[in-house]
């Protein structure tokens, strides 16, 4: 029989992260959100808690856990705040994982200990202005001159790219032409502060206001040839595989937001009185909250299934897309329902559901839009 109970170790992790989110993040994150400010000290504390090293081996300073452990932690963080959840998700899945999966032993030894401890953050430079879902439409170039990669171009919507903790960005760049005439795309590490590497101002965003997102530009940026990550010409394929894993993590984050909407609605329905009784006595409110719980519970099973296949070494692309598609869309649904339960207060940023509503939409866009997920699912079924 299937057993979806968490192991003792993972359950202990879940409770630890839950306590940290409720006691450390919840009381102060609203102020950072309103100020559109990145909470460096909270991120340092998450590093001290070991969250950035969860799926990495102990030899690099990691916790020796699994990718599923990371997902469970992300769910608990997002039940309280998505800005901090995406900071961890991007730092692990997009910042450190490419180096762990494809980097040389020297690159791993140089970067992973700092990334696992949270002392440093890494970023993932794939998307470009005007590129959107067409991630292969890379215009950034890198030419090899006298043992140095010389990089020119720009990237857009890059998370964790300009914080005080950011120390590197791994970027995709066109390094030549394939035999079939297509672009040869490679991945290259660019340390922060490299001459010609400019980090733009923080975007003014609808949501995730306490996270860091910026545009990057590269003007004759020169880095050593050994900063190449993985095989030359395999950068695009490497990043696509990283995105497959990341979709499970985004699904877990989405489930956390959806469950946070349930948590806040249950609490509010028991406290708010109208017409002489708590609004939770009204069947209309009961049904809305029940439907929210059904969606969150079902979405959780979807990301559990995708993570299960991934950890067993089985193909999981379809399951990852299903989990990401469904959980991101029900997160948006739950945010809308929770705002309705809260009435006017749901429109106020001082209430968590106001932030949840603003944070939910990007989940249907980031790391592959809902349309891309449907395309991947259909393609895996042999349709089209």
From TrEMBL:
**Named cofactor requirement(s):** FAD
Q: Which residues cross the membrane?
A: none
State the EC number(s).
Answer: 1.3.8.1
Domain spans labelled Acyl-CoA dehydrogenase/oxidase C-terminal? 233-381
Q: Which InterPro entries does the entry mention?
A: Acyl-CoA_DH_CS (IPR006089), Acyl-CoA_Oxase/DH_mid-dom (IPR006091), Acyl-CoA_Oxase/DH_mid-dom_sf (IPR046373), AcylCo_DH-like_C (IPR036250), AcylCo_DH/oxidase_C (IPR009075), AcylCoA_DH/ox_N (IPR013786), AcylCoA_DH/ox_N_sf (IPR037069), AcylCoA_DH/oxidase_NM_dom_sf (IPR009100)
Q: Where is the Acyl-CoA dehydrogenase/oxidase N-terminal domain?
A: 7-119
Q: What is this protein called?
A: Butyryl-CoA dehydrogenase
Q: Which PROSITE patterns match?
A: ACYL_COA_DH_1, ACYL_COA_DH_2
Which keywords belong to this entry?
Answer: FAD, Flavoprotein, Oxidoreductase
The UniProt family comment states:
Belongs to the acyl-CoA dehydrogenase family.
Q: Which GO terms describe its molecular function?
A: flavin adenine dinucleotide binding; short-chain fatty acyl-CoA dehydrogenase activity
> Pfam family example for this protein?
Acyl-CoA_dh_1
Residue ranges of the Acyl-CoA oxidase/dehydrogenase middle domain? 123-221
């Amino acid at each position: 029989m299937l057993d979806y109970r968490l192991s003792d170790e993972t359950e202990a992790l879940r409770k630890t992260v839950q306590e940290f989110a409720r006691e450390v993040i919840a009381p102060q994150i609203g102020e950072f959100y309103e100020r559109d400010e990145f909470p460096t000290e909270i991120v340092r504390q998450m590093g001290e808690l070991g969250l950035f090293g969860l799926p990495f081996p102990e030899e690099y300073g990691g916790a020796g856990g699994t990718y599923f452990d990371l997902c469970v932690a992300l769910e608990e963080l997002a039940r309280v705040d998505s800005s901090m959840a995406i900071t961890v998700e991007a730092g692990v899945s997009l910042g450190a994982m490419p180096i762990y999966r494809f980097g040389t032993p020297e690159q791993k030894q140089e970067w992973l200990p700092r990334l696992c401890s949270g002392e440093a953050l890494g970023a993932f430079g794939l998307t470009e202005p005007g590129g959107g879902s067409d991630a292969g439409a890379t215009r950034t170039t890198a030419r090899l001159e006298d043992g140095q990669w010389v990089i020119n171009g720009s990237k857009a919507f890059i998370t964790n790219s300009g914080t005080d903790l950011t120390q590197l960005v791994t970027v995709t760049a066109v390094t030549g032409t394939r035999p079939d005439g297509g672009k040869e795309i490679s991945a290259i590490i660019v340390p922060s502060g490299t001459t010609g590497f400019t980090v733009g101002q923080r975007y003014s965003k609808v949501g995730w206001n306490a996270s860091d997102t910026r545009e990057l530009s590269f003007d004759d940026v020169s880095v050593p040839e050994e900063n190449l990550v993985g095989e030359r010409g395999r950068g695009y394929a490497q990043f696509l595989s990283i995105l497959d894993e990341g979709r499970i993590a985004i699904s877990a984050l989405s489930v956390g937001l959806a469950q946070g909407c349930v948590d806040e609605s249950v609490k509010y329905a028991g406290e708010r009185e109208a017409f002489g009784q708590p609004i939770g006595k009204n069947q209309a409110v009961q049904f809305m909250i029940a439907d929210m719980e059904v969606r969150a519970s079902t979405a959780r099973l979807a990301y559990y299934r995708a993570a299960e296949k991934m950890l067993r070494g089985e193909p999981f692309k379809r399951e990852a897309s299903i989990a990401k598609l469904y959980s991101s869309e029900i997160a948006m649904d739950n945010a809308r329902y929770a705002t309705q339960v809260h009435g006017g207060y749901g429109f106020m940023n001082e209430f968590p559901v106001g932030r949840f509503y603003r944070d939910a939409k990007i989940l249907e866009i980031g790391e592959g839009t809902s349309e891309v997920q449907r395309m991947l699912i259909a393609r895996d079924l042999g349709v089209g």
